[in-house]
Specification:
Elements (H helix, E strand, L loop, with lengths): L2 E5 L3 H14 L4 E5 L2 H10 L5 E4 L10 H9 L5 E5 L4 H9 L4 E4 L4 H12 L12 H5 L4 H8 L4 H11 L4 H8 L3 H15 L4 H8 L23
Parallel strand pairs: 1-2, 1-3, 3-4, 4-5
Length: 229
């Protein structure tokens, strides 16, 4: 069972988010919090939360202060921000701070559902009109990408290598002997550091360069076949 934590003090929007979640996960367990304090109490009692959906405007938080408190207390918990603020500078700051996604409140229910699914798979969900930083800044060269790849940890490099070879999350977990939730967390960090928003984009862009793979990588297994769509 997938577990969600919705942190929003507006009852109608909590209900709307819950409906979006249940479109894809009818049996999902959903916890509601009206403040960061409520959320921290729930997280202290519930260790199996798969995704938190956070409004930036709460009675006990302003700006990114609530998000940072959640990250400090639960650094491995994926947190997607759901906000009425759609300024691209705010979106980019949220992603730079480690948000698993940024979902505008103006998004339709079906689009919210799709965005939540992307975040659960480890991708970063962003507004449709957000221009990737590499394209916006004109620094999408192979050299710039190599510099960003150099920021990845050895384990993140292993995960990226397996993504490029066609492994799905469960296969990566088995290969690296990790929990699937840990794999998703690694994928989110890989995409954030590379300034890319999907694993497909990561495959395409990093396919242009050679990865500096850790020398101790032991993997002779052929990549599993991709599922036919």
């Amino acid at each position: 069972m997938t577990c969600f934590l919705i942190i929003d003090d507006h009852p109608l929007f909590r209900e709307a988010l819950g409906n979006a979640v249940r479109l894809a996960h009818p049996d999902a367990q959903i916890f509601d919090a009206l403040s960061i304090a409520d959320a921290l109490n729930i997280l202290a009692a519930q260790s199996e939360i798969d995704l938190a959906l956070l409004d930036l405007t709460l009675p006990d938080a302003t700006g990114f202060s609530g998000f940072l408190r959640l990250r400090a207390a639960h650094p491995r918990l994926p947190v997607a921000i759901v906000s009425s603020e759609e300024d691209q500078h705010v979106v980019r700051e949220a992603l730079a701070l480690g948000a698993a996604g940024y979902l505008p409140k103006s998004t339709s229910k079906r689009e919210l559902t799709a965005a939540i699914e992307r975040v659960l798979s480890g991708s970063i969900s962003v507004p449709k009109d957000l221009l990737p930083a590499a394209d916006r800044d004109g620094n999408g060269s192979s050299r710039a990408l190599q510099d960003r790849v150099a920021q990845l940890t050895p384990q993140q490099l292993r995960v990226l290598d397996l993504i490029r070879r066609g492994y799905q999350n469960r296969d990566i977990a088995a290969e690296l002997q990790l929990a699937e939730s840990t794999v998703k967390a690694h994928i989110t960090e890989v995409l954030r550091k590379l300034r890319l928003f999907s694993r497909n984009k990561a495959v395409i862009e990093t396919g242009k360069i050679e990865l500096p793979l850790p020398s101790d990588r032991q993997s002779s297994r052929p990549a599993p076949r991709r599922k036919q769509q």
